[in-house]
Amino acid sequence: MLTLYHDPVSTHSWKVRLVLAEKGLPYEEVVFDVRHARDHKAPVYLAIHPYGKVPAIVEDGFAIYDSTTINEYLEERYPEVPLLPPDPRERARLRMLEDFRDNHFHSDFFPLLRQLRDTPPGKRDASVVESAKAAVFEDMARLEAAAEGREYLCGGFSIADAAFIPNFAYLEQWHIAIPESYPRVHAWWERCKARPSYTAAYGL
After folding, report:
1. Does pLDDT of 159 surpass 90?
2. What letters, b where the CB count within 10 A reaches 16 and e where it falls short, cover 175-204?
3. CATH number, span 88-199
4. Helices in 33-182 by DSSP H: which ranges?
């Protein structure tokens, strides 16, 4: 049995839940409130994840952390519902997209989390919000190009789609619309929301 250590509102936890849902894998869960509690910094959890972050999974005593590493593990361990394309170049393309999400798109998105999720309305900095929105909108150009001629970012639904979905769910919750200049991104997002895994993994 898999055990998932996560915070429901964590985007990185969410992308792992999406993959678990797509593959139909049962799991036990240990839920943390990373923003308000300190349970994820307790020694018992640091033995699982030495950086004290979420998510992490444990299977048969084997611990894995980092959401991207976890999803790659789940794909290799449970390949029956494939979430990586078979072609090596397409796999490389997928991994570059996921790297873009983790190290660029999410970095530009992060100030929105801090301002719109974690800061009371009266204390928010509107200039930070507008700057972050502009950066995120600019980043969407790469997704618009990636979706050309494809139903999802890499053809069939993949772990690349799972990586971006939590960010877009937050944007929707905050009523930040996808710009009209990105029709493929809008269509991709509507398809993602229609999948059963979206409802099963939802964290807001």
Report:
1. yes
2. ebebeeebebbbebbeebeebebbeebbbe
3. 1.20.1050.10
4. 43-46, 67-77, 88-100, 106-112, 126-146, 159-173
Alpha carbons 21 and 160: distance in angstroms, whole number: 15
H or E element that contains 188: helix 183-193
Q: Determine the straight-line distance between the first and last CA of the chain, rounded to whole angstroms.
A: 26
Q: Which sequence spans correspond to the domains of the chain? A: 2-77, 88-199
Question: Helix (H, G, I), strand (E, B), or coil: what is residue 144?
Answer: helix
The identity of residue 62, as a single letter, is F
Q: Name the DSSP class of 113.
A: I
Q: Which CATH superfamily is domain 2-77 in?
A: Glutaredoxin (3.40.30.10)
Q: What string of DSSP letters covers 160-178? A: HHHHHHHHHHHHHHTT-PP
Rounded alpha-carbon distances, angstroms, from residue 150 to 75, 91, 157, 165, 185: 21, 15, 10, 16, 11
Distances (CA, A) of 178 to 106, 145, 162, 168: 16, 15, 18, 9
- Distance (Å) of CA 201 to CA 25, 63, 64, 84: 12, 21, 20, 19
Is pTM beyond 0.85? Reply is yes
| pLDDT tens figures, 38-95 | 778 888 999 999 999 999 999 999 999 999 999 999 999 999 999 999 999 999 999 9
Contact between 7 and 30 (Cβ < 8 Å): no
| Residue 3, helix vs strand vs coil | strand
